[in-house]
Amino acid sequence: MTSSGAPTVDPARVAVVWDESLLGYKLSESHPLHPVRLDLTMRLARSLGVLDGIDLLAPTMAPDEELRRIHVASYLDAVRVAPERGEDMAHQLGTSDNPIFEGMHEASALATGASIAAAREIAEGRADRAINIAGGLHHAMADHAWGFCVYNDCAVAISWLLDHGYERICYLDTDVHHGDGVQAAFYDDDRVLTISMHQHPRTLWPGTGFASELGSGRASGTAVNLALPPGTRDQGWLRAFSAVVPSLLGAFRPQILVTQCGVDTHHEDPLAELSLTVDGHRAIYSRLRELAAEYSDGKWLALGGGGYGLFRAVPRSWTHLLATVLDRDVEPHRPIPADWTSYATEKTRRPLPTSMTEEAPTDFERWGGFTEVEVDPFLLETRRAVFPLHGLDPADTRD
């Protein structure tokens, strides 16, 4: 058992997909989605011993036939030639969000290949859990780039799993932005339950992810959106999560849990306005681990995502994620190793963290019916919209 009491897994049954070539997904030197966050995460995890004895699985580029699971062929062609041809507004290439960069197709296909590799390790029985922190590019659409994302590795990996033995998949997105690209890919597919928790679309790009977006046709109820108000803190977020997600997993009975673990919900993130902490993120990952054990026979594919606190938030939060997936939980008050601080200091003039915690409380009042807690109107809106479609009572006071 881990220190949290969660069921443990043999580290040999966990696949960590990583190679420094994944740092090539670099939209520009000044772009918010800078690969230094991945570099610093892996270095911190190594410094803390989280990756000791772990053989990292190097990815290969996803071939076109795999990318075409989600993306149309004309878009793949456009991405491939964009570095020579330049701006292409029809495919949203060359915008400030999605600048064109040399090797864009190759870097994007590699990030997608990493998520397929992680999915394959689980599907072929070599692992129960797998993680690709370079994945989670959840906004990319079938025919255009969107929100820093060129190819949608999340959706491609889910499609791959559907063709390799899985009939019920839950995709759970904890990024501050709506998981719009994955929702769009499976909006009419009742084999995939997409759950996105995000800042309310009236206050943040991309402006989608309302509780009324439920899926279409026979898939009605398999798109779930829980939008939270700006300023939501750890305790409110965790209360909302506990009031919605476990009940839906119990009703849907997924065979695998695929999670997009964006950390742009952090209170210091420059692009959004939720107020979670590194401690809150750690609590989320612990809960995801428990839910995978309870509802999907321990099968858990974890992907990265957004996060623009490159030096203070992302490395700590995703080190906690790696540790949680590996059942090597890092004690929150563990000091940041000096070698990591020395390396990171060369990259930024910003003050750097000194420990793996922000001393934030993560205990919360569990759902027991509507109260004056700020998140309650929002979680109740989602429960009322989607619970009846799963045979659940939105007024049930059990979470």
From TrEMBL:
<keyword id="KW-0006">Acetoin catabolism</keyword>
<protein>
    <recommendedName>
        <fullName>Acetoin utilization protein AcuC</fullName>
    </recommendedName>
</protein>
<dbReference type="InterPro" id="IPR023801">
    <property type="entry name" value="His_deacetylse_dom"/>
</dbReference>
<dbReference type="InterPro" id="IPR023696">
    <property type="entry name" value="Ureohydrolase_dom_sf"/>
</dbReference>
<dbReference type="InterPro" id="IPR000286">
    <property type="entry name" value="HDACs"/>
</dbReference>
<feature type="domain" description="Histone deacetylase">
    <location>
        <begin position="31"/>
        <end position="324"/>
    </location>
</feature>
<dbReference type="InterPro" id="IPR037138">
    <property type="entry name" value="His_deacetylse_dom_sf"/>
</dbReference>
<dbReference type="InterPro" id="IPR003085">
    <property type="entry name" value="AcuC"/>
</dbReference>
<comment type="pathway">
    <text>Ketone degradation; acetoin degradation.</text>
</comment>
<dbReference type="Pfam" id="PF00850">
    <property type="entry name" value="Hist_deacetyl"/>
</dbReference>
<comment type="similarity">
    <text>Belongs to the histone deacetylase family.</text>
</comment>
